[in-house]
């Protein structure tokens, strides 16, 4: 049987994007296996305002993770400040020549309404159309699914179906309540490997869309 890590770059570069309070920073900490990004429980201040970078090692692989500022989940691009838009775009430059994967964090607490969908589409457009080929949806807070599976949740929501289709059915569920569960990180990196192997370009370069 082929080793799941064979063929992967020995230094994986990931950027994490998504709405505010979706669990982005927590997800970054879980992937790295340590507390690198500040996670403040105070809702008035639990917001990343500038790109932050963290490094770690897992399964003999070096990891670089960039946590980017979030946007308000129903804001259009026009509603988001120029400073935030520049910082979100800047996340691509933090791990040259570009990330191997973009992790789009969507928490399962909030219904994926038409406004939410428009907001995600708007803000992802900052990276250009080709970014979807390098994107994996990272669903957080699966405890809110109840007895439903993630597949049942997607099937019952047209917006989530659209999102999953945009990412060519690439998604992963990350349980923020189990930060020490390294198996969920291993499975995520396996999915990144599959996407990496299928893409013509090994990483996403910003200059391609300028």
TrEMBL record:
Record's keyword annotation contains GTP-binding: yes
PROSITE patterns, per the entry: G_AIG1
InterPro entries: G_AIG1 (IPR006703), GIMA/IAN/Toc (IPR045058), P-loop_NTPase (IPR027417)
Keyword Cell membrane: no
Superkingdom as given in the UniProt entry: Eukaryota
One Pfam family recorded for the sequence: AIG1
UniProt record similarity statement: Belongs to the TRAFAC class TrmE-Era-EngA-EngB-Septin-like GTPase superfamily. AIG1/Toc34/Toc159-like paraseptin GTPase family. IAN subfamily.
Name of the protein described by the UniProt record: AIG1-type G domain-containing protein
Taxon lineage: Eukaryota, Metazoa, Chordata, Craniata, Vertebrata
């Amino acid at each position: 049987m082929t080793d799941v890590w064979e063929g992967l770059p020995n230094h994986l570069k990931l950027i994490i994007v998504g709405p505010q309070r979706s669990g982005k920073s927590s997800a970054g900490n879980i992937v790295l296996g340590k507390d690198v990004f500040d996670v403040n429980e105070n809702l008035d201040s639990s917001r990343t305002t500038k790109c932050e970078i963290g490094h770690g090692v897992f399964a003999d692989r070096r990891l670089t993770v960039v946590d980017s500022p979030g946007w308000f989940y129903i804001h259009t691009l026009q509603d988001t400040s120029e400073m935030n838009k520049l910082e979100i775009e800047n996340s691509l430059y933090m791990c040259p020549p570009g990330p191997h994967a973009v992790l789009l964090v969507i928490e399962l607490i909030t219904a994926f309404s038409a406004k939410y969908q428009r907001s995600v589409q708007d803000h992802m457009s900052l990276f250009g159309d080709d970014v979807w080929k390098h994107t994996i949806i990272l669903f957080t807070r699966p405890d809110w699914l109840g007895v439903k599976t993630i597949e049942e949740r997607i099937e019952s929501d047209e917006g989530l179906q659209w999102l999953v289709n945009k990412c060519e059915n690439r998604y992963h569920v990350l349980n923020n309540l189990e930060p020490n569960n390294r198996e969920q990180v291993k499975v995520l990196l396996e999915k990144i490997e599959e996407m990496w192997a299928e893409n013509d370009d090994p990483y996403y370069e910003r200059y391609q869309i300028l």
